[in-house]
């Protein structure tokens, strides 16, 4: 299913605070689809078939505090996906086969406190987690992070005076 503005009535959308499209067959969401949801604080898109996010899919969600895009097929997080989400506190991206998280993808997420990622098979670079000043919980699971360079970059990206709990779970086949 493809979500576009014509399928979503604009009559009541300015008053929505929470929206869930979970457990559907959505595979694509148009750019600017959520632009009129000016009061939205919680968005649930988990358990769909999203593969690619458009750069401007989440444009205008300036008050969003919770975003769940878990259990999709997302492989690539681009620089501008979350750029308007200055008040986002929780981002759940678990169970997506992520291969690429571009540098500075989280740069505007200064309020983000909890980040859930697993199945990240890419390389963690020096600026992958840049801008996560309020982060106090990071869950990384089932990743290629066991490579020495990835661990070093993860520590460099996240080391700051804030309290940070890192759940680092590796699944080895011994």
Care to describe what's here?
The protein has a 7-stranded parallel sheet with strand order 2-4-5-7-9-10-11, with no helix packed on it. The longest helix has 11 residues, at 148-158. The model is unreliable at 160-164 and 168-174 (pLDDT under 50). Helix 1 (148-158) links the parallel strand 10 and strand 11. The chain is mainly β and 174 residues long. The chain is 6% helix and 20% strand. It contains 1 helix and 11 strands, in the order ββββββββββαβ.
Q: Would you summarize the structure shown here?
A:
This protein is mainly beta and 174 residues long.
Q: If you average the pLDDT, what whole number results?
A: 81
Category from helices, strands and their pairing: mainly beta
Overall radius of gyration: 16 Å
Anisotropy-based shape? globular
What's the helix-strand series? EEEEEEEEEEHE
Point out poorly predicted stretches. 160-164, 168-174
The main sheet orders its strands as 2-4-5-7-9-10-11
Distance between the termini: 41 Å
* Count of helical stretches: 1
Helix content: under 10%
How many extended strands? 11
Main beta-sheet strand count, sense and barrel state: 7 strands, parallel
Fraction in beta strands: 15-25%
